[in-house]
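Minutes, project huddle
Topic: does the predicted pose make sense with adenosine-5'-triphosphate bound?
PN asked that the exact inputs be recorded in the minutes so nobody has to dig through chat later. Recorded below.
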Amino acid sequence: MEKYLSQLNDAQLEPTVQIEGPMIVIAGAGSGKTRVLTYRIAYMMSKGIDPFNILSLTFTNKAAREMKERIATIVGDSEAKNLWMGTFHSVFARILRAEADKLGYPSNFTIYDTQDSDRLIASIIKEMNLDKDVYKYKQVRSRISSYKNSLITVRAYFQNPELKEADAMARRPRMGDIYKEYVERCFKAGVMDFDDLLLKTNELLTRFPDVLMKYQNRFRYILVDEYQDTNHSQYLIVRALSDKFQNICVVGDDAQSIYAFRGANINNILNFQKDYDDVKVFRLEQNYRSTKNIVNAANSIIDKNQTKLDKIVWTANDEGEQIKVHRSLTDGDEGRYVASTIWENKMNNQLKNSDFAILYRTNAQSRAIEDALRKRDIKYRIYGGLSFYQRKEIKDVLSYLRLIINPADEEALKRVINFPPRGIGQTTMDKLIVSANGYNRTIFEVMKNIDKTNVKVNSGTKTKLQNFVTLIESYQVLNQTADVFELAEHVTRTSGLIREFNKDGTPEGVTRMENIEELLNGMKDFVEGQKEIADTTGNLAEFLEDVALATDLDADKGDADHVALMTIHLAKGLEFPYVFIVGLEEDLFPSAMSMNTRSELEEERRLFYVALTRAEKQAYLTYALSRYRWGKLIDSEPSRFIEEIDEQYLDVVTPIEERRFNPMLDADIFGDVEDSKVNPNKIRFKPAKKAVLKKGSTNKTQEKFQVTAPKNLKPVSKTGGNTNLFDSKLVVGNVVKHIRFGTGKVMKIEGKGADIKAEINFQHGGLKKLLLRFAKLEVV
Ligand code: ATP
Ligand code: MG
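Predicted holo structure (tokens), as shared on screen:
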């Protein structure tokens, strides 16, 4: 252990060896907070503390896994296995399962992911005959989620006239009724949604003092990473569990609190010292992650926030390169710049794909980047899209499995009762739902006892329903002897799923089959893995819980070499040698939706701080002057965050010059075919606003006005063209001049008539494909 402690600096060592009592480590990015937590746990174990008594909560399961691995290298594998470590959701799902009966849930309760919740809410809205344009199910879901995370139960809701009033003001007076119905339906179905995992844990700990005591005694030592992003529900759980022994260690950085929109409460970290007696406060100041340039630039930006704890962050690392700022004409160009920079860097410096990350504000931005990476044959992976377990075919298989352990699971049932098709239509389903609600029974129970119910269906349908019940029951019998893998293998075959996906032989069908195979492989791994851990039984419920709580980040086994693409929110806690932050434009980042109040803007700024501090060696900031958003070409101006960085840390690659609206100039944006998937005549676009990057310039409020594409933007007719080489004798090998891209050599000509395109290698802009009817080229 001594050897490992020497890998910490003095400031880090102090909190690491401070085992007893409440303590907080507040420190900036990259200063070793996560490292302190990791080494502290190893140190505690080396001092004889039983790993079963240590609970540590991380932001992602991936982070927990990595911590555990690191601890295992210090104290040995077998001991590290016994640590309670994971996200709030995964740790407390496990506890809830053990205590489920107290709350009236089956211990085999299943978990609804957001998609399941959405579907149930949509169906409730429909059953209640509400206008789905007023009651948008996603908004309703997020409202319900925020009630739950603030511990507002249905009863509390109806007791609070202010809440009812607020929803009525938002034109949703029936909000409370939907909430009530949703909660009842979930309960009846024996399922919990993500927020329930925290809400019900709170309920468990407050209603049952003996249970609280049991877990207080078990978790004598509690550690929380990324404490700044805990919500109220999580805060209360930590408080309750740590109340007896008060051995609580939290680490965090208020400057990296970025989940307020999901209920995170920055006050949890700001008020920690008031919550416990004799809190020891530790500060770390030395950053080990990034170059001086990056650290100083990040400091200069976070300095602009008014609400913050004062912190010092410095580094002994090299000066490093300045941060590169790059302007592109379009989002397509931006993608190409990023791809070509990665490509060159890889060549020149012998780097791997995994040395690079591309971070963006919104998922939609990945498309243009992906296109460019693909053209350069650079392997990449997008994180945070649809997770593997949410793909259709995978959810189909999982729904059968969910029904096996919990036939009450309504959403699972609805999903597969008629998939593969069994002739059980929507009308029958509607009858079953109405009847189930009437009898206060589950749909499955109604189906099973169809003769004793008021459901009117013909005898053919009745047989079909009974066959489905028999099918699921036969799986339940098998589940008593088979492991997860054997069971799933049997289910996919006998349910007809495989036949269904194999049927048409389309590429999609093949991909689906491959995914199912991958799922089965994963199950095999799970079964093998469970055999090694004596503690767990390796049952189906546990497997389903694992996958329900898996995030896309968790699926990454770290073996493939790819560029990482993700939103900044997802990148928290991670680090990469080279980081591109793309789409740094006003209204995109900061987001148009987050500029109304100072606190919203400050959260955007913290987000930018998180993004920048992910970089170890080099950061690139890019923005485009125009970008496709919602199918339209929108003009944009550089983000204020670029301006806010002290300019000595910046290397502005492209001069940021004034650009005025000029239809002829804009025309050649369309000339760049890769970006012009939309007919320019149909595009409405805004004039460019002044895009001046000068320190101190704050005038962002120049008037915005909309114009339709002017007449002179019409495609030039074959005979009438005079400004281009549309019908000229342009040939491969010609050297041409373009008013924006400069000189370049024609590499290829393709297409006919109005669609003639030339691929031109520009000295500065690189390879571009231009539509000749728009590109104004001059042969030189
Ligand atoms: P974030 O705020 O982004 O979560 P953090 O404070 O948790 O950052 P870590 O991820 O623990 O910081 O550390 C940042 C990097 O610095 C890691 O690569 C870590 O291994 C390294 N590091 C931390 N402390 C030391 C040290 N004393 N000596 C060498 N490397 C260190
Ligand atoms: Mg960290």
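Observations noted during the meeting:
- Residues 655-727 have pLDDT under 50 and may be disordered.
- DSSP finds 32 helices and 25 strands in the chain.
No decisions taken; revisit at the next huddle.
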